[in-house]
């Protein structure tokens, strides 16, 4: 048995270990908008349902592994605390991967990946038409974790509640 001490492992290596140990993981295909109404669509594998009373989904967009910059999804949720979690099917995987590319802020990943944005019923971000399940959420809490240095990852956990 291998014993892992998180205090002695660089965050990017620990991130890989945890993601490979907790599997299979569902994907949160998160749709958000910024304060100017520009759409963002991005997949997150750190995602799960955490309860029903109150209804709670969480996902965690860590900083970019390449640039250590905050991701647009994180910035958007801080500006407009709403998100749509779109479930991903196998037939959507290749297109979803296109949305995971690091585009400049403000680029519409719906357009880049070829997905169809449709209006939501109760929140501002768009839903993905091709997704069989689209969960409209209002963000109840953002818990910022991690250190604020260029050498470490900063995680942002989003606690999302279903709209009613």
Describe the protein.
The model has no long low-confidence stretch (mean pLDDT 84). The protein is α+β, with helices and mostly antiparallel strands. It has a single domain (24-162), classed as Electron Transport, Fmn-binding Protein, Chain A (Pnp Oxidase, Chain A, Roll), CATH 2.30.110.10. A hairpin with a 5-residue loop joins strand 1 and strand 2 (39-44). It has helices at 11-21, 72-79, 93-99, 109-113; strands spanning 28-33, 39-44, 47-52, 55-59, 82-86, 117-118, 127-128, 134-146, 154-162. The termini are far apart. It has 4 helices and 9 strands, in the order αββββαβααββββ. The strands form 2 sheets. Strands 2-1-5-8-9-4-3 form a 7-stranded antiparallel beta sheet. The longest helix has 11 residues, at 11-21.
Brief synopsis:
The chain has 164 residues and is of the alpha+beta class.
Major beta sheet summary: 7 strands, antiparallel
- Going by CATH, the homologous superfamily would be Electron Transport, Fmn-binding Protein, Chain A
State the end-to-end distance.
Answer: 46 Å
What coarse outline follows from CA principal-axis ratios?
Answer: globular
Number of domains: 1
Low-confidence stretches: none
In spatial order, strands of the major sheet run 2-1-5-8-9-4-3
What order do the SSEs take from the amino end to the carboxyl end, as H and E?
HEEEEHEHHEEEE
The helix content, as a percent range, equals 10-25%
């Amino acid at each position: 048995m291998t014993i892992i001490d998180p205090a002695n492992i660089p965050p990017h290596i620990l991130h890989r270990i945890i993601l490979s140990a907790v599997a299979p993981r569902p994907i949160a295909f998160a749709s958000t908008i910024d304060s100017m109404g520009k759409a963002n669509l991005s997949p997150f594998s750190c995602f799960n349902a955490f309860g029903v009373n109150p209804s709670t989904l969480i996902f965690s967009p860590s900083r970019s592994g390449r640039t250590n910059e905050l991701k647009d999804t994180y910035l958007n949720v801080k500006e407009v605390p709403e998100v749509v979690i779109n479930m991903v099917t196998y037939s959507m995987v290749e297109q979803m991967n296109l949305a995971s590319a690091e585009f400049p802020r403000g680029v519409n990943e719906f357009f880049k990946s070829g997905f169809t944005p449709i209006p939501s019923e109760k929140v501002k971000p768009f839903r993905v038409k091709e997704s069989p399940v689209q969960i409209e959420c209002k963000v109840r809490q953002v818990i910022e974790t991690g250190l604020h240095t260029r050498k470490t990852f900063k995680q942002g956990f989003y606690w999302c509640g279903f709209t009613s």
